[in-house]
Design a protein that fits this description.
The protein is an alpha+beta fold and 421 residues long. Helices cover 43% and strands 26% of the residues. The protein contains 12 helices and 15 strands. Strand 12 and strand 13 form a beta hairpin. Helix 8 crosses helix 12 and helix 11 (312-328) packs antiparallel against helix 12 (387-397). The longest helix has 35 residues, at 186-220. The chain is elongated and about 125 Å long. 22% of the residues are buried.
Amino acid sequence: MFQLLPTELSDRLSATLKLVIKERQTHSFEYSFQLQKNSKPFYLEARVSPINQDEVLVIVRDISIRKQNQETKNRLAGVMEATTDLVLFVGMNENVLYVNQAGLTLLGHTHQTASLTLGKIMDHASYESIGHEALVHAAREGSWRGEAHLLHRGGKRIPVSLVVIPHRSEEGGEVDFFSVIARDITEEKRVDEAKTEFITVASHELRSPLTSIRGYLSFLTHEETLESLPESVRDYLQRAYENVDSLGNLVNNLLDVSQIHTNRLTLHRGSVDLAQTLEKTCRFLTFLTDQKKLHLTFDYAKDGVWTGYFDGIRLQQVFRNLLENAIKFSPRGKSLAIQLAEKNDCFSISIRDQGVGIPQSQLSSIFDKFKQAKGSQSRYRGGAGLGLYIAKNIVELHGGSIQVNSQLRKGSEFIIQLPRT
């Protein structure tokens, strides 16, 4: 009956047939074979069921793909059990299908439990803000990365960095499940908070003596006082005043960074005329543009309404940072152009220079902390690399955005969009 089948498979089928006929119950078994030596094995599942006293139904299915998937899962499980990060599988219904041992330990569980869901292992605020959205974003974009807080069984909140990756049985098909990898960043957060606290305390301690020194130097560098001093002394005092002013700006920037990091940077909004604020900033920096013989233009509709509900002092800080950078990186005799316009219910401010430009490879990180463009065309020109980071955060606190376009040796353009309301 089974002459065409391999001997082992034929024998197993015969034995199963006898068992089904005897017991009148369905029996099944799995069988693997290779078409060639060293080739991938094929897996079959044979299911034998009684129909009546004299007949049986034999169904043979190819289960090779299912077996291969299982083997892949087993290998992945071995890797996941060896890692110190939490790894879990989450179904489309947000049920947790699997948690590795490191994850169980982190969450305070001793064994796998079927009652875990994404909503139960994340703290309420994290789940409400990013839980479901992270899965949706990962399914659409291919992955999601961010930070959240997981919830220990005992109630403790655990800060983690998360990576969410969707898995599909076939390319372009529906998502079968998600893998979530979480790394405990409790210690990193503690160190970061200690560093922020140190910067805050140190900056406050430096600010008072610097204010006093700046006050004395301001008096000594007053025009009437300077006229009575020898030229060499005047030069020393001017340099001292400029350096103290730069140091004071650095201290203020460090305090701003500390406030941004701890979400304590607040805005004091009021009615602000952007045209007047930009004109005031330009006048303040006239001495710098004159030193380098730069041609500064400011273009806007004089009959336009440029008033919005902003923090004028903070926006002036943003404009000053951007203009000082443009001046710093512009060769002598070049032009700087500022344009204020209305675009799509927003105020658009463009600050364009003819400076050295920013390498394309560095554009994506130019707004990071302590970042300055590096390249053959942009040697170090002072500064701590905090101005653009602070500017970006101030603009975003206003509900706006900031972006940069740049070409090496041709210059850069920073564009700020601020909502009218």
